[in-house]
């Protein structure tokens, strides 16, 4: 297919202002002075020492010495592309977000796909969760949907994230293994954190080795809120559905490709866009009315649980098309900063304890990774509308703010930007009623770690089940400590006895000994008789 013509989006036009074409130009220093020789340093005599005076040598080498920035603490390896989003029909009833009102409006987006564990130079096709982060450059500011290709997460509370990441990253003494979950610390963490069981089922399924970024789903994971013009709020989960369908590699393919072509997924995306085969993803919403908040046998604020689609159908509301590759990997993919807190009026948060913690973590880490408080001025992160406020100075400030007033309220400057509480237009946090004692516990159903893991297992075809068992054999088979391997079998016995017995066969430990007999009858319609759930003894 030949590349299709497409109108550059407003964001793509904005980025044009920052681009530099080096072709046919003289080589200069950073100060613009023309350089006569960039291959031989200035020396005191042909065989003498290099002279400090050689400003071109010093500038060139100093800049090189400072080229690297820290890679992301997780999701270090990623690949981005530009595109646009269009809603199919106005969503006026459910949200006041302007970019979800008019089917004729193309909202620019930048998407970054990533793996989680490996470093920036690791292979693409490892077994891992894939990040799926979308920045919508709307007329009301940036909205970031920072999701994954799996609908749930490893933990229920963000305070555990450093523990999870320390366990899954390479072990600290020898930095092995690079990008694999096949090691003792990770599985030791799993057996000590039952809440991770459901996510492990997804991770060890074929979803953990996607064929292409173009062929995987995306999920916002958390429960968010949509709020309409009248102030009515509803709970929502966001989904991306690839028009090409969901496809995976086999484990054998994934391993071979990791060796032969570690850039397999990024090249696939790059080539598809260059060839005009623009990846498309439809946006889906699951919506729960506020009055139905407690109608389910799980807590809708628990990020280790899905909302079964039989109970809460996914409504398709729009489509995203990725139609332009980045011009410069570092400037765009590497400097992109996604943050859960970037929202627009009409989209709001809930008290999901994982979401609440993420609201702190992203901005915090980016202050370090991108060198201070002005990283919103980096071209890829700028909104398409101008920002005005009293934030000033700091490292790498690009804006030349005019006038002497940088405080509020003031009586020196008239027409100076100021908030107008209660008046139309500004972001109003949803006035959810909150009261309670300060506690560290969560509601009871957060402790049911196995019902949905079992639901997932039961929904798999025989071939998919076989893949999962093989994945356990590989991943857990590499764990040195036999006690941990045994505990894995005992843990997954809580999900399904057959699964546990099959796992045991391939990892050199005993089949599970304990029975998982205690059962709770499901109260929700989706968890029907055959899915009657059980809890650990
Ligand atoms: C990065 C998703 C949980 C901390 C990312 C990225 C994604 C993502 C997609 C990469 C963004 C990019 O492409 O630049 C998720 C999802 C989560 C989750 C879906 C659970 C539902 C958490 C939690 C924390 C956390 C609980 C911390 C408490 C981070 C940090 C980064 C990151 C620090 C690096 C950001 C940067 O350097 O720009 N996450 N994450 N994540 N995540 Fe998460």
How does this model look, in words?
- This protein has helices spanning about 10-15, 55-65, 160-170, 185-190, 195-205, 250-260, 265-275, 330-335, 355-370, 450-460, 460-475, 480-495, 495-505; strands at about 80-85, 105-115, 130-140, 140-150, 220, 225, 235-240, 280-290, 315-325, 345-350, 520, 535.
- The chain is an alpha+beta fold and about 525 residues long.
- Strands 1, 2, 3, 4, 5, 6, 7, 8, 9 and 10 form a ten-stranded antiparallel β-sheet that branches. It has a two-stranded antiparallel ribbon with strand order 11-12.
- Strand 6 (about 225) and strand 7 form a beta hairpin.
- The chain is globular, with a radius of gyration of 26 Å.
- The model is unreliable at about 515-535 (pLDDT under 50).
- The site of protoporphyrin IX containing FE has 29 residues, from strand 2, strand 3, strand 4 and helix 9.
- It catalyses: 2 H2O2 = O2 + 2 H2O.
- Decomposes hydrogen peroxide into water and oxygen; serves to protect cells from the toxic effects of hydrogen peroxide.
- It comes from Aquisalibacillus elongatus.
Structure at a glance:
The chain has 537 residues and is of the alpha+beta class. The chain has helices spanning 10-16, 55-65, 161-168, 184-191, 197-203, 251-260, 264-274, 330-334, 353-369, 451-458, 462-477, 482-493, 497-506; strands at 78-87, 107-115, 130-138, 141-148, 218-219, 224-227, 233-242, 280-289, 315-325, 347-348, 519-520, 533-534. The chain starts with 9 loop residues before the first helix and ends with a strand.
